[in-house]
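User: What would this chain look like folded?
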Amino acid sequence: MSGFRNIFIKTFYKIGSFVPTRLLLNITNQMLIIPFYHIISDENVPHIRHLYSIKSVKRFMHDLDFLLKVFKPLDYIEFQELARNNKRPVKPSFFLTFDDGLKEFHDIIAPILIQKGIPAICFLNSDFIDNKDLFYRYKASLLIDYLVNNPKLISDKKVIDWVSTHSNRTKDISKLFLSILYQNKNYLDDFATLINYNFKEYLSIHKPYLTSNQIHSLKNKGFFFGAHSIDHPEYRFIDFGEQIRQTKGSIESICARFSLDYKTFSFPFTDYKVSKQFFNKVYNDNIADISFGCAGQKKEIFSNHFQRISFEMDYLTAKEIYNSELLYFVFKAFLGKNIIKR
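Assistant: Here's the prediction, encoded as structure tokens.
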């Protein structure tokens, strides 16, 4: 979320909580909402706890109750049909999405969705399925967590020297880990080796990602799956060739492994600064049928690319989040900036 947008939504979410959602829908004519989450849990999950707040099961269920009260749930087939015909729902509708393919989708989320009759799609990183590897940001959170629980390490000379070598801007090791970008992700592996922390052991014991068997089981229960890149880079920081490789490689791998007859993709992090050239290549070469960003309630110049809204702000209700997005949509419309231009 951009700084200005974040300030706006935090400032005006209380206004949105008093405005009827249906009134805002009538004003904006935005009949499609695409929420996204990563994880739902009542546990303080180590590989995520230092990155963002985790929405509890109770608050998630409240979100779903709000969505069901105002919107009709769509499954991927219905959503795909709308996208293919460049249409939007006549009645307010929502399409529920989840990123990163975490085990909580199987253990916690899916049972709730089945109970409430809500379909959903989960986007997978092809390198992380079956806990073969770990997202570099999750590694950063785990290292921070390990140092919090072993504070003496921070004053260890080898740790001090490592921080000094890898940063001339901050002595705060947590900030340093969180500032590491995809292209320098090996720094995290190097540091783990330095302090004898074993990511493979964490993967083996905690199994943070969905397994192939779980994915097949969920597919048989009516859930849908898509690609989320090979190993979760931020696309604006990788070149065009690597963008295509990450997209095509993950889609082909996941479609083949799970016998999917549709090709859908959600951007890791954000689609910010992704070029027209990329979208033209992906759609013209039939790499993907549909793709998703996460810039909030915005219009797109590409009819088969859709922006989603994060519902993971734990301090806000679903109504507050969505109404704030619609108010922001109206505000940007006055400035002529509610359409994303590439």
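The longest strand covers residues 120-124. If you want, I can go into more detail on any region.
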